[in-house]
Design brief:
InterPro entries: TPR-like_helical_dom_sf, TPR_2, TPR_rpt
Helix content: over 70%
Radius of gyration: 19 Å
Largest sheet: none
Protein name: Tetratricopeptide repeat protein
Strand content: under 5%
Keywords: Repeat, TPR repeat
Distance between the termini: 67 Å
Order of helices and strands: HHHHHHHH
Region (Disordered): 1-24
TPR repeats: 93-126
């Protein structure tokens, strides 16, 4: 077994940095949710970066990071994260809706309309239906 001092030396100068483990990742994910709710999206992104580095397949963490990017007005990273989520979960109505909002905010209304309509088709929530504007002519 490795000497604990070796582990500390390998981690760098700051010996107070805990080693990553699944519990740490869950704590960071939950803390990121709270930071986003408290309107600190950049703090949420920082926490989620390490969670996603440890679990790149975790769609929930990616969706939360996409929301945080959007809230921080980092539209291109938000777009990329929402698109990655949709590659994995093409029937995720919220991800379509949020991607549409991202396109809308970045001045791409044609792409926004497509995703608003997909969101509404997948989940006919009133908010999604209003945004889809099915009753308007193209």
């Amino acid at each position: 077994m490795a000497d604990p001092r070796e582990r500390t030396a390998r981690r760098g100068r700051d010996a107070t940095v805990p080693e990553r483990n699944p519990e740490t990742d869950v704590i960071d994910f939950r803390a990121a949710e709270h930071l986003l709710d408290a309107r600190d999206p950049r703090g949420a992104v920082k926490l989620l970066d390490s969670v996603i580095a440890a679990h790149p397949e975790n769609t929930a963490a990616r969706l939360l990071r996409a929301r945080a990017f959007f809230a921080a007005a980092q539209l291109r990273p938000a777009e990329l994260e929402f698109e990655l989520v949709l590659e994995r979960e093409p029937d995720n109505a919220f991800a379509h809706f949020a991607l549409a909002r991202t396109f809308e905010r970045s001045g791409n209304p044609e792409r926004a309309t497509r995703h608003f309509r997909l969101a509404a088709a997948l989940d006919p929530k009133p908010e999604y239906l209003r945004a889809a504007k099915f009753d308007e002519r193209d």
